[in-house]
Amino acid sequence: MRRNSAQTSGLESTILKQIRAGDGISRVELARTLGLAPSTAGIYVERLIADGFLIESARTRRDAGRPPRLLRPNPEGGEFIGVDFEARNIMAVAVDFSDRPLRNAHRFIEEGDSVQQIFRKIEEAINAVHPRHSRRLLGIGVGVPGIVDSSRGIAVQYKYIAHWQNVPLAARLQRRFGVPVYLENNVRSMALAELGFGQGRGTRNFLCVGVRSGIGIGLVLNGQLVCGSHWRAGEFGRWRARPMTGEAAGWFTAVADNAPGNPELEEIASVRAIQRALQKAVALGVRTVLRPGLQGIDLAEITRAAQQRDAVTLRVLGAAASALGAAIGQLTLVLDPDKVILSGPLTALGDVFLAPLRLAAAQELAASAQPAPEVVNSSMGDFSGALGAAALALHEWKPAPAVAAAAPAAANPPAPARRTAGGGRPRAAAKSSLLDR
User: CA–CA separation, 20 vs 259, rounded Å?
Assistant: First the structure.
């Protein structure tokens, strides 16, 4: 049989994903795993080698006989860029065809920036990590805060950026850079990074809790990233927290203002909420080592105060961590994860934040006689979301459609000209392919 160009591109993409899933695979193993005739697998492997996307090398072994040759992604096959942003920061990273990080960049978002200014800063961050030769760039992934419609490439809504509604982010970036662009919620991008390279590697059920200006969760259940029917899964910051009590409760704006109903979790446990609570405590004259600067109290100042065992700082952090831990405990009753991974700048606090969070989660679950999952800090640093977005682009990208492949019995075709970009907008159902690793 002959395959049309779309089928050829799809099969080549499947082959690339399978090869990325391990540390090298032989042609025979590849054909057996994918249920292909060895001759068919050979045709496509040869094409991918000729295009520069695969390399083949001998496996070292000590037993007698000729060692099989192993297929691996060619680091020189091209580059992908991942972008991750929220209300304050834009992070970008470039990776090669084998997922190895190459360059990174950081841009700040100012409080009064318009949507157009944020667009330009995202483009600046991409340009800062863009390969010197534009033909090497194959795709861009973007981790976007708030609600994202990945199937249409639209950023739907994010409450911490004014007028950020139904933004056609993928279309604009695709016009600007001429490569496929894939969008995902930024905390789900963090979960992808944890799954591929971090604390979630080898774990099929985990929650990645991203705490920055807001709070979100990337849910990986049975090895699949959960997006929800309307791309809204993981909006954990909107969870209604229990009422706070004690003096510290008056320092949290949403609680002190007597907002109707219980406060949202991100009004208590986000970085923004913690900073505001500490600033209010200072303004009320509470004794503390904190000294707000012109831009308020930054995380570095909070970390220094926590290291000095400043009572006010520890009380605010403890209250925020306890609220987050109790909510995680409630969510654990529903989802039963093996692990919970805390991601974002609060991981710099170490056990100062993690210990009360773990305790609150365990207490919440003990009331229902349920064991608590393992709760850990991410070890991936500030660029985890950007790395996840780059991985998204790398795994959703497909080689450009070529002339229909020959039947399995045909001789290997001559090496085609190198293809440098391809793939259309990802389908909603395509996310699962990223996680079969």
Answer: 50
User: What is the mean pLDDT of the segment spanning 340-359?
Assistant: 96
What CATH number does domain 5-73+402-435 carry, 2.40.30.10, 1.10.3210.10, 3.40.47.10, 1.10.10.10? 1.10.10.10
* Nearest one of 156, 168, 175 to 235, comparing CA atoms: 156
**Helix 169-177 / helix 115-129 crossing angle, nearest 10 deg:** 40
Q: Are 215 and 424 in contact (CB under 8 A)?
A: no
If one counts every other C-beta atom within 10 angstroms of the C-beta of residue 142, the result is 30
Map residue 217 onto helix, strand or coil.
strand
Main-chain dihedrals φ then ψ at residue 279, nearest 5 degrees: -65, -40
Residues 6+ positions from 147 with CB-CB distance below 8 Å? 155, 156, 157, 158, 185, 231, 232, 235
By CB neighbour count within 10 A (0-12 exposed, 13-18 middle, 19+ buried), where does 234 fall?
buried
d(C-alpha 24, C-alpha 26), whole Å: 7
Residue with tokens 């990273």: 93
Radius of gyration of the chain (CA): 24
CA distance 426 to 43: 26
Q: Is the pLDDT of residue 256 over 60?
A: no
> 59-80, pLDDT tens digit by residue?
655 555 566 789 999 999 999 9
Q: What share of the chain is helix, strand, coil (3-state, %, to 5)?
A: 40, 20, 40
For 377-429, the pLDDT digits (tens) are: 999 988 999 999 999 999 899 988 754 344 343 333 333 333 333 443 333 33
CA angle 387-393-394, nearest 5°?
85
Query: 78-195+383-393 architecture in CATH?
Result: 2-Layer Sandwich (3.30)
d(CA 406, CA 3): 7
CATH number for 203-377 (one of 3.40.640.10, 3.30.420.40, 1.25.40.890, 3.30.2270.10): it is 3.30.420.40
